[in-house]
Amino acid sequence: MLGGLGAPLTAVLLFAGLLLDALLGEPRRLHPLVGFGRLATRVENLLNRGRWRRLAGALAWTLAVLPPVCLVLWLQRLLPAWAGWLLDATLMWFSLGLFSLRAHTAPIADALLAGRLSDARALTARIVSRDTDTSDEAALAKAACESQLENGSDAVIGALFWFAVAGGAGALLFRLANTLDAMWGYRNARFGRFGSFAARADDVLGYLPARLTALAYALLGDTRRALACWRKQAPAWPSPNAGAVMSSGAGALGVALGGTARYDGVDEMRPSLGEGRAPKAADIGRAWRLVARSALLWCTLFALSALLTG
Protein backbone atom coordinates (compact mmCIF):
# COMPACT_ATOMS: atom_id res chain seq x y z
CA MET A 1 0.00 0.00 0.00
CA LEU A 2 1.25 3.48 -0.90
CA GLY A 3 4.64 2.32 -2.12
CA GLY A 4 5.26 0.32 1.08
CA LEU A 5 4.47 3.30 3.37
CA GLY A 6 1.56 3.56 5.75
CA ALA A 7 -0.93 6.33 5.04
CA PRO A 8 0.03 8.50 8.08
CA LEU A 9 3.74 8.32 7.21
CA THR A 10 2.96 9.10 3.58
CA ALA A 11 1.05 12.20 4.70
CA VAL A 12 4.01 13.33 6.83
CA LEU A 13 6.39 12.87 3.89
CA LEU A 14 4.09 14.79 1.56
CA PHE A 15 4.27 17.80 3.86
CA ALA A 16 8.01 17.24 4.31
CA GLY A 17 8.43 17.46 0.54
CA LEU A 18 6.41 20.68 0.42
CA LEU A 19 8.50 22.12 3.25
CA LEU A 20 11.76 21.22 1.54
CA ASP A 21 10.47 22.78 -1.68
CA ALA A 22 9.59 25.98 0.22
CA LEU A 23 12.94 26.14 2.03
CA LEU A 24 15.29 24.97 -0.72
CA GLY A 25 13.41 25.64 -3.96
CA GLU A 26 14.68 24.09 -7.17
CA PRO A 27 18.21 22.60 -7.06
CA ARG A 28 20.56 25.24 -8.48
CA ARG A 29 23.55 23.01 -9.11
CA LEU A 30 23.67 19.45 -10.37
CA HIS A 31 19.93 19.35 -10.98
CA PRO A 32 19.04 15.67 -11.57
CA LEU A 33 16.76 16.60 -14.47
CA VAL A 34 19.69 18.18 -16.32
CA GLY A 35 21.52 14.85 -16.28
CA PHE A 36 18.33 13.01 -17.18
CA GLY A 37 17.73 15.38 -20.08
CA ARG A 38 21.20 14.73 -21.44
CA LEU A 39 20.65 10.99 -21.17
CA ALA A 40 17.28 11.28 -22.91
CA THR A 41 18.83 13.33 -25.73
CA ARG A 42 21.49 10.68 -26.30
CA VAL A 43 18.91 7.90 -26.33
CA GLU A 44 16.76 9.85 -28.77
CA ASN A 45 19.68 10.58 -31.09
CA LEU A 46 20.52 6.90 -31.11
CA LEU A 47 17.03 5.47 -31.65
CA ASN A 48 15.05 8.15 -33.51
CA ARG A 49 15.72 6.84 -36.99
CA GLY A 50 14.50 4.25 -39.45
CA ARG A 51 10.99 3.05 -40.23
CA TRP A 52 9.83 1.86 -36.80
CA ARG A 53 9.91 5.16 -34.97
CA ARG A 54 6.83 4.59 -32.81
CA LEU A 55 8.33 1.36 -31.52
CA ALA A 56 11.72 3.06 -31.12
CA GLY A 57 10.07 5.83 -29.11
CA ALA A 58 8.47 3.34 -26.76
CA LEU A 59 11.81 1.59 -26.31
CA ALA A 60 13.58 4.91 -25.70
CA TRP A 61 11.00 5.91 -23.06
CA THR A 62 11.46 2.56 -21.32
CA LEU A 63 15.26 2.81 -21.34
CA ALA A 64 15.20 6.35 -19.97
CA VAL A 65 12.48 6.06 -17.31
CA LEU A 66 12.41 2.55 -15.89
CA PRO A 67 16.05 2.12 -14.74
CA PRO A 68 16.02 5.07 -12.28
CA VAL A 69 12.56 4.11 -11.01
CA CYS A 70 13.66 0.49 -10.51
CA LEU A 71 16.81 1.72 -8.77
CA VAL A 72 14.68 3.63 -6.26
CA LEU A 73 12.51 0.57 -5.64
CA TRP A 74 15.63 -1.54 -5.08
CA LEU A 75 17.11 1.02 -2.67
CA GLN A 76 13.87 1.12 -0.71
CA ARG A 77 14.24 -2.59 -0.04
CA LEU A 78 17.94 -2.35 0.73
CA LEU A 79 18.09 0.72 2.98
CA PRO A 80 17.07 0.88 6.64
CA ALA A 81 13.65 2.40 7.26
CA TRP A 82 14.88 5.86 8.26
CA ALA A 83 17.08 6.12 5.17
CA GLY A 84 14.18 5.04 2.98
CA TRP A 85 12.02 7.78 4.48
CA LEU A 86 14.77 10.32 3.81
CA LEU A 87 15.03 9.10 0.22
CA ASP A 88 11.27 9.43 -0.22
CA ALA A 89 11.23 12.98 1.18
CA THR A 90 14.11 13.93 -1.11
CA LEU A 91 12.36 12.49 -4.15
CA MET A 92 9.18 14.33 -3.19
CA TRP A 93 11.16 17.58 -3.02
CA PHE A 94 12.91 16.84 -6.32
CA SER A 95 9.62 16.03 -8.07
CA LEU A 96 7.79 19.15 -6.89
CA GLY A 97 7.93 22.46 -8.70
CA LEU A 98 5.59 24.64 -6.63
CA PHE A 99 8.05 27.26 -5.43
CA SER A 100 10.10 27.14 -8.61
CA LEU A 101 6.89 28.23 -10.37
CA ARG A 102 6.81 31.32 -8.20
CA ALA A 103 10.54 31.90 -8.66
CA HIS A 104 10.12 31.92 -12.45
CA THR A 105 6.90 33.95 -12.67
CA ALA A 106 7.02 36.48 -9.83
CA PRO A 107 9.81 38.45 -11.59
CA ILE A 108 7.54 38.74 -14.64
CA ALA A 109 4.83 40.33 -12.53
CA ASP A 110 7.37 42.61 -10.85
CA ALA A 111 8.73 43.75 -14.21
CA LEU A 112 5.26 44.46 -15.56
CA LEU A 113 4.23 46.40 -12.46
CA ALA A 114 7.44 48.46 -12.75
CA GLY A 115 6.79 49.18 -16.43
CA ARG A 116 9.85 47.22 -17.60
CA LEU A 117 8.14 45.58 -20.56
CA SER A 118 11.33 44.42 -22.29
CA ASP A 119 12.46 42.63 -19.12
CA ALA A 120 9.05 41.01 -18.76
CA ARG A 121 9.23 39.78 -22.35
CA ALA A 122 12.65 38.21 -21.80
CA LEU A 123 11.58 36.56 -18.55
CA THR A 124 8.40 35.17 -20.09
CA ALA A 125 10.36 33.73 -23.03
CA ARG A 126 12.22 31.53 -20.52
CA ILE A 127 9.07 29.68 -19.45
CA VAL A 128 7.01 29.44 -22.65
CA SER A 129 7.73 28.48 -26.25
CA ARG A 130 5.64 31.23 -27.85
CA ASP A 131 7.10 34.44 -29.28
CA THR A 132 7.18 37.32 -26.78
CA ASP A 133 9.17 39.99 -28.64
CA THR A 134 6.12 42.18 -29.30
CA SER A 135 3.81 41.01 -26.49
CA ASP A 136 1.97 43.55 -24.35
CA GLU A 137 1.16 43.24 -20.64
CA ALA A 138 -2.03 41.25 -21.20
CA ALA A 139 -0.29 38.73 -23.49
CA LEU A 140 2.61 38.27 -21.07
CA ALA A 141 0.31 37.91 -18.06
CA LYS A 142 -1.76 35.42 -20.04
CA ALA A 143 1.29 33.33 -20.89
CA ALA A 144 2.49 33.30 -17.27
CA CYS A 145 -0.96 32.41 -15.91
CA GLU A 146 -1.43 29.60 -18.42
CA SER A 147 1.99 28.17 -17.61
CA GLN A 148 1.30 28.20 -13.88
CA LEU A 149 -2.16 26.69 -14.13
CA GLU A 150 -0.97 23.87 -16.38
CA ASN A 151 2.08 23.21 -14.22
CA GLY A 152 -0.13 23.12 -11.17
CA SER A 153 -0.97 19.63 -12.40
CA ASP A 154 2.28 18.70 -14.17
CA ALA A 155 4.72 19.93 -11.53
CA VAL A 156 2.69 19.90 -8.31
CA ILE A 157 -0.53 17.91 -7.92
CA GLY A 158 0.65 15.13 -10.23
CA ALA A 159 3.79 14.58 -8.16
CA LEU A 160 1.79 14.65 -4.90
CA PHE A 161 -0.77 12.21 -6.31
CA TRP A 162 1.77 9.66 -7.50
CA PHE A 163 3.73 9.94 -4.27
CA ALA A 164 0.55 9.10 -2.38
CA VAL A 165 0.03 6.11 -4.67
CA ALA A 166 3.56 4.71 -4.86
CA GLY A 167 5.92 6.74 -2.70
CA GLY A 168 9.09 8.31 -4.05
CA ALA A 169 9.26 5.89 -6.97
CA GLY A 170 5.79 6.98 -8.08
CA ALA A 171 6.65 10.68 -7.90
CA LEU A 172 9.87 10.06 -9.81
CA LEU A 173 8.05 8.06 -12.50
CA PHE A 174 5.59 10.89 -13.03
CA ARG A 175 8.23 13.60 -13.14
CA LEU A 176 10.44 11.76 -15.63
CA ALA A 177 7.48 10.87 -17.84
CA ASN A 178 6.35 14.49 -17.83
CA THR A 179 9.88 15.63 -18.70
CA LEU A 180 10.02 13.28 -21.71
CA ASP A 181 6.66 14.55 -22.91
CA ALA A 182 8.07 18.09 -22.77
CA MET A 183 11.14 16.95 -24.73
CA TRP A 184 9.61 14.53 -27.23
CA GLY A 185 5.86 15.17 -27.31
CA TYR A 186 5.84 17.50 -30.29
CA ARG A 187 3.70 17.00 -33.37
CA ASN A 188 6.37 17.70 -35.94
CA ALA A 189 8.51 15.80 -38.43
CA ARG A 190 11.14 14.82 -35.90
CA PHE A 191 8.94 13.76 -32.98
CA GLY A 192 5.50 13.13 -34.47
CA ARG A 193 5.89 9.34 -34.38
CA PHE A 194 8.88 8.88 -32.11
CA GLY A 195 7.38 10.98 -29.30
CA SER A 196 3.86 9.57 -29.50
CA PHE A 197 4.47 7.01 -26.73
CA ALA A 198 5.92 9.67 -24.41
CA ALA A 199 2.90 11.91 -25.06
CA ARG A 200 0.39 9.10 -24.41
CA ALA A 201 2.23 7.93 -21.29
CA ASP A 202 2.10 11.46 -19.89
CA ASP A 203 -1.61 11.70 -20.73
CA VAL A 204 -2.33 8.44 -18.90
CA LEU A 205 -0.25 9.24 -15.82
CA GLY A 206 -1.63 12.76 -15.67
CA TYR A 207 -5.31 11.94 -16.25
CA LEU A 208 -6.45 11.69 -12.63
CA PRO A 209 -4.08 14.37 -11.26
CA ALA A 210 -5.32 16.83 -13.89
CA ARG A 211 -8.92 16.34 -12.86
CA LEU A 212 -8.07 16.60 -9.18
CA THR A 213 -6.26 19.85 -9.99
CA ALA A 214 -9.19 21.18 -11.99
CA LEU A 215 -11.57 20.27 -9.16
CA ALA A 216 -9.37 22.02 -6.59
CA TYR A 217 -9.21 25.14 -8.75
CA ALA A 218 -12.99 25.16 -8.96
CA LEU A 219 -13.49 24.63 -5.23
CA LEU A 220 -11.04 27.39 -4.31
CA GLY A 221 -12.16 30.00 -6.85
CA ASP A 222 -15.34 30.97 -8.67
CA THR A 223 -16.80 27.48 -8.49
CA ARG A 224 -19.77 27.87 -10.79
CA ARG A 225 -17.81 29.61 -13.54
CA ALA A 226 -14.87 27.21 -13.24
CA LEU A 227 -17.05 24.13 -13.58
CA ALA A 228 -18.92 25.64 -16.53
CA CYS A 229 -15.68 26.53 -18.34
CA TRP A 230 -14.27 23.06 -17.62
CA ARG A 231 -17.34 21.38 -19.06
CA LYS A 232 -17.64 23.56 -22.16
CA GLN A 233 -14.04 24.45 -23.06
CA ALA A 234 -11.86 21.49 -22.08
CA PRO A 235 -13.01 19.20 -24.95
CA ALA A 236 -11.83 21.76 -27.52
CA TRP A 237 -8.27 21.93 -26.17
CA PRO A 238 -5.73 19.66 -27.93
CA SER A 239 -4.44 18.17 -24.66
CA PRO A 240 -7.08 16.24 -22.69
CA ASN A 241 -5.39 17.09 -19.39
CA ALA A 242 -4.21 20.66 -19.98
CA GLY A 243 -7.64 21.63 -21.27
CA ALA A 244 -9.36 20.56 -18.05
CA VAL A 245 -6.78 22.22 -15.83
CA MET A 246 -6.47 25.55 -17.62
CA SER A 247 -10.16 26.04 -18.38
CA SER A 248 -11.12 25.40 -14.76
CA GLY A 249 -8.28 27.55 -13.45
CA ALA A 250 -9.09 30.45 -15.77
CA GLY A 251 -12.74 30.25 -14.79
CA ALA A 252 -11.83 30.12 -11.11
CA LEU A 253 -9.72 33.28 -11.51
CA GLY A 254 -12.32 35.05 -13.66
CA VAL A 255 -9.91 35.81 -16.50
CA ALA A 256 -9.90 35.08 -20.23
CA LEU A 257 -6.98 32.93 -21.37
CA GLY A 258 -6.29 30.97 -24.57
CA GLY A 259 -6.96 32.67 -27.87
CA THR A 260 -4.25 34.02 -30.17
CA ALA A 261 -0.58 33.24 -29.49
CA ARG A 262 2.40 33.58 -31.83
CA TYR A 263 4.75 30.68 -32.45
CA ASP A 264 7.77 31.01 -34.78
CA GLY A 265 6.36 34.19 -36.25
CA VAL A 266 2.92 32.73 -37.01
CA ASP A 267 -0.23 33.60 -35.08
CA GLU A 268 -2.17 30.54 -33.90
CA MET A 269 -5.77 30.76 -32.79
CA ARG A 270 -6.26 28.45 -29.82
CA PRO A 271 -9.57 27.69 -28.08
CA SER A 272 -10.79 30.10 -25.42
CA LEU A 273 -10.14 29.36 -21.77
CA GLY A 274 -12.02 30.86 -18.87
CA GLU A 275 -14.30 33.86 -18.89
CA GLY A 276 -13.98 37.48 -17.90
CA ARG A 277 -11.45 40.26 -18.37
CA ALA A 278 -7.98 40.09 -19.87
CA PRO A 279 -5.31 39.09 -17.34
CA LYS A 280 -3.10 41.68 -15.63
CA ALA A 281 0.24 41.53 -13.87
CA ALA A 282 -1.44 40.97 -10.50
CA ASP A 283 -3.16 37.85 -11.83
CA ILE A 284 0.21 36.08 -12.10
CA GLY A 285 0.43 36.02 -8.31
CA ARG A 286 -3.24 35.05 -8.03
CA ALA A 287 -2.62 32.06 -10.30
CA TRP A 288 0.32 30.87 -8.18
CA ARG A 289 -1.66 31.21 -4.97
CA LEU A 290 -4.45 29.14 -6.51
CA VAL A 291 -1.93 26.40 -7.33
CA ALA A 292 -0.40 26.55 -3.83
CA ARG A 293 -3.77 26.41 -2.09
CA SER A 294 -4.78 23.47 -4.28
CA ALA A 295 -1.66 21.56 -3.20
CA LEU A 296 -2.36 22.29 0.46
CA LEU A 297 -5.99 21.27 0.03
CA TRP A 298 -5.21 17.79 -1.30
CA CYS A 299 -2.37 17.22 1.17
CA THR A 300 -4.63 18.22 4.05
CA LEU A 301 -7.47 16.02 2.85
CA PHE A 302 -5.09 13.10 2.45
CA ALA A 303 -3.68 13.67 5.95
CA LEU A 304 -7.18 13.81 7.46
CA SER A 305 -8.13 10.63 5.62
CA ALA A 306 -4.95 8.95 6.90
CA LEU A 307 -5.73 9.93 10.48
CA LEU A 308 -9.31 8.71 10.27
CA THR A 309 -8.46 5.38 8.64
CA GLY A 310 -5.00 4.77 10.05
Question: What does this molecule look like?
Answer:
By secondary structure, the protein is mainly α. It has one domain. 73% of the residues lie in helices and 5% in strands. It has eleven helices and two strands, in the order ααααααααααββα. The protein has helices at residues 7-24, 32-47, 53-78, 81-95, 98-113, 117-125, 137-184, 196-220, 223-233, 240-253, 281-309; strands at 256-263, 266-274. It has a two-stranded antiparallel sheet with strand order 1-2. A hairpin with a 2-residue loop joins β1 and β2. The two termini are 12 Å apart. Pathway: Cofactor biosynthesis; adenosylcobalamin biosynthesis. Keywords: Cell membrane, Cobalamin biosynthesis, Membrane, Transmembrane, Transmembrane helix. This is Cobalamin biosynthesis protein CobD.
Indicate the topology.
Blueprint: H1 7-24, H2 32-47, H3 53-78, H4 81-95, H5 98-113, H6 117-125, H7 137-184, H8 196-220, H9 223-233, H10 240-253, E1 256-263, E2 266-274, H11 281-309
Antiparallel strand pairs: 1-2
Helix pairs in contact: 1-4, 1-7, 1-11, 2-3, 2-7, 3-4, 3-7, 4-7, 5-6, 5-7, 5-11, 6-7, 7-8, 7-10, 7-11, 8-9, 8-10, 8-11, 9-10
